[in-house]
């Protein structure tokens, strides 16, 4: 009897084999979400072995040393939202798992989480196997998988159970949009959420009202609106906000934790904030995107069709140019917790599939490579957040929510050696001509970003150095995400420990239970039992350090601050401006389609 064929041996180039053994980083500022320390870091065989004073450590022989004087040493970024090699709208996204993860590493992201999206009627397990077969031979960094629930039946429920117990999946995404393709109704949502709760999983939701969108698309096309501007007109802020509120209510009724993906508007952000206050900041988590923080929906009206179409994604970018700052402030005060990229890239000829019908433009933009720099530029550089909060919203919070912490999202003995040596003073200009992604357009084109990765270390291997990326296909590994993440379920079940309270306080830069007030602006006089405060963002750049914060980030490591921006180390968080009614309403105004009537304020 012939012996079985041995499994193929993964070949790793010599430069990567030697880089993964021993590495010593000295004189850097090590930044975790809950503290900053001037420390050295020793790495061996892909794992952090020591973090502390160089005086207390003897560097072993045969060890490469990197001098990080004046630089930050931060956990590698975790992008919780990518779509590599995705079949959508009759075509396939151009960033595959090799090109996409290589671009991620180039920008300082060392872990990605992609989405398995079964076709309607397709087995979840078969779709999962398809994604693994695409990714495993190609990824250059570690990755995890969420699984989309694109249809519902008893067999889907059983396959969810198998995925949790045997395949390393703890998160399932539902769609309230894409009618006829992925959309579930409310009853199905409830059953999915119930199943997630039973399995100890995290439910995720794309929150837009798909029924209204379908009606609006038909009306707009009938009125002759065929260009990219029709995309945003068909799915305005109110459409996103209504679904966001509905999803939060359904999840709460089912007792299930909910992660709202890609919050793109002020109105939807407010709904997440209201739900978190309503439920004592447990069970509801919100993600926004680099795209929403770095640009806006005014591009949909660009005279160049291709330029406008290149910005199409769902939910869409919003035309209100103050939206990016508003969303960053929600991140600053922990109303939103994570930043993803929703990287799903299509080239010019692919976008042209919707040349005569905006509803056929493949949805998706870039972001996996530029996410870290955009968040630093729009958050830290403007004075809205500090380096610790940056680490929280680009890495640690995602690791906690999806049960990868402290293996990922932290620099500590025993953690994976996924690190970035970050130069907060360096400046780079984003461009499609220099990025590592396969797409021919970059939505952040021309943006100057302070904050650049000098070195990116993936499982102990130096993969970015002197702007050169050195990686090998398949050097990354699949990450199992165990069920019942402590960060999610302990709080949901009322088990919150004092140490975690302190940890979370520091993670939010000392911002706990902010007494914000915001008039919801409903047209009727129905009492809102959970109002946000009247004194609510937006406003000028704000400091986000409270007077009793223990943050000790040296001013020198935060880089240049533009004139007018506040130094977080010198002031306390305060929202003192009283918004007048017009300012409040401007953030939630519902714009009417051409020829239609506005529905006012919700």
From TrEMBL:
Q: Which reaction does this chain catalyze?
A: 5,6-dihydrouracil + H2O = 3-(carbamoylamino)propanoate + H(+)
Q: What is one process in the GO biological process aspect for this record?
A: pyrimidine nucleobase catabolic process
Q: Which domain of life is it from?
A: Eukaryota
Task: List each copy of the Amidohydrolase-related domain by range.
Answer: 72-462
Q: Which family does it belong to?
A: Belongs to the metallo-dependent hydrolases superfamily. Hydantoinase/dihydropyrimidinase family.
| Cofactor(s), names only, from the UniProt record | Zn(2+)
Q: What is its EC number?
A: 3.5.2.2
Q: Where are the transmembrane segments?
A: none
InterPro entries for this protein: Amidohydro-rel, Hydantoinase/dihydroPyrase, Metal-dep_hydrolase_composite, Metal_Hydrolase, Metallo-dep_Hydrolases_sf
Sites bearing N6-carboxylysine, chain numbering: 173
On modification after translation, the UniProt record reads:
Carbamylation allows a single lysine to coordinate two divalent metal cations.
Q: Zinc: present as a keyword of the record? A: yes
Q: Does the keyword tRNA-binding apply?
A: no
The residues forming the signal peptide are none
What does the record give under GO molecular function? Answer: dihydropyrimidinase activity; metal ion binding
Which protein is depicted?
dihydropyrimidinase
Q: Which Gene Ontology terms of cellular component type are present?
A: cytosol
Subunit arrangement? Homotetramer.
- Please name the top-level EC class of this enzyme: hydrolase
Pfam families under this entry? Amidohydro_1
Q: Which UniProt keywords apply?
A: Hydrolase, Metal-binding, Zinc
């Amino acid at each position: 009897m012939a012996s079985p064929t041995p499994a193929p041996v993964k070949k790793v180039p010599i430069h990567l084999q030697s880089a993964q053994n021993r590495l010593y980083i000295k004189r850097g500022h090590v930044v975790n979400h809950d503290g900053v320390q001037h420390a050295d870091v020793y790495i061996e065989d892909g794992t952090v072995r020591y973090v502390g004073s160089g005086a207390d450590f003897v560097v072993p022989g045969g060890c490469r040393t990197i001098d990080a004087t004046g630089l930050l040493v931060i956990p590698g970024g975790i992008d919780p939202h990518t779509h590599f090699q995705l079949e959508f709208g009759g075509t396939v996204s151009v960033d595959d798992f090799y090109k996409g993860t290589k671009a991620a590493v180039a920008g300082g992201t060392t872990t990605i989480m992609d989405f398995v999206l079964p076709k309607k009627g397709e087995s979840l397990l078969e779709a999962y196997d398809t994604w693994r077969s695409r990714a495993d031979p190609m990824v250059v960094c570690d990755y995890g998988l969420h699984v989309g629930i694109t249809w519902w039946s008893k067999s889907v429920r059983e396959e969810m159970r198998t995925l949790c117990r045997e395949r390393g999946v703890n998160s399932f995404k539902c769609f309230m949009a894409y009618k006829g393709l992925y959309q579930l109704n409310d009853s199905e949502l409830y059953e999915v959420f119930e199943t997630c709760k039973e399995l100890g999983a995290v439910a995720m939701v794309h929150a837009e009202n798909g029924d209204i969108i379908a009606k609006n698309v038909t009306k707009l096309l009938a009125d002759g609106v065929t260009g990219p501007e029709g995309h945003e007109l068909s799915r305005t802020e109110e459409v996103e906000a209504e679904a966001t509120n509905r999803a939060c209510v359904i999840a709460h009724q089912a007792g299930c934790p909910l992660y709202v993906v890609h919050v793109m508007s002020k109105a939807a952000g407010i709904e997440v904030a209201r739900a978190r206050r309503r439920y004592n900041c447990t069970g509801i988590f919100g993600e926004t995107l680099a795209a929403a923080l770095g640009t806006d929906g005014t591009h949909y009206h660009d005279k160049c069709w291709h330029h406008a179409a290149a910005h199409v994604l769902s939910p869409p970018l919003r035309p209100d140019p103050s939206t990016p700052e508003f969303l960053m402030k929600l991140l600053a005060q922990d109303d939103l917790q994570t930043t993803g990229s929703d990287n799903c890239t299509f080239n010019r000829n692919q976008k042209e599939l919707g040349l005569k019908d905006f509803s056929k433009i493949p949805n998706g933009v870039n972001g996996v490579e530029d996410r870290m720099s955009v968040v630093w530029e729009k958050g830290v550089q403007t004075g809205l957040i500090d380096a610790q909060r940056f680490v929280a919203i680009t890495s640690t919070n995602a690791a906690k929510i999806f049960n990868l912490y402290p293996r990922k999202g932290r620099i500590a003995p025993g953690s994976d050696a996924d690190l970035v040596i970050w130069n907060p003073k360096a400046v780079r200009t984003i461009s499609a001509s220099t990025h590592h992604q396969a797409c021919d357009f970059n939505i952040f084109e021309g943006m100057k970003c302070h904050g650049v990765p000098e070195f990116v270390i993936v499982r102990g291997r130096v993969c970015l150095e002197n702007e050169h990326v050195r990686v090998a296909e398949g050097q990354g590994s699949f990450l199992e995400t165990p069920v019942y993440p402590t960060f999610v379920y302990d709080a949901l079940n009322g088990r919150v420990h004092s140490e975690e309270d302190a940890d979370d306080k520091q993670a939010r830069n000392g911002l706990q239970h902010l007494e914000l007030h915001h008039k919801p602006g409903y047209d009727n006089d129905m009492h809102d039992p959970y109002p946000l405060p009247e004194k609510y963002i937006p406003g000028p750049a704000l400091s986000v350090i409270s007077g009793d914060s223990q943050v000790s980030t040296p001013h020198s490591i935060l880089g240049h601050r533009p004139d007018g921006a506040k130094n977080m180390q010198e002031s306390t968080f305060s929202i003192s401006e009283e918004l007048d009614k017009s300012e409040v309403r401007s953030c939630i105004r519902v714009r009417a389609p051409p020829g239609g009537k506005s529905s006012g304020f919700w």
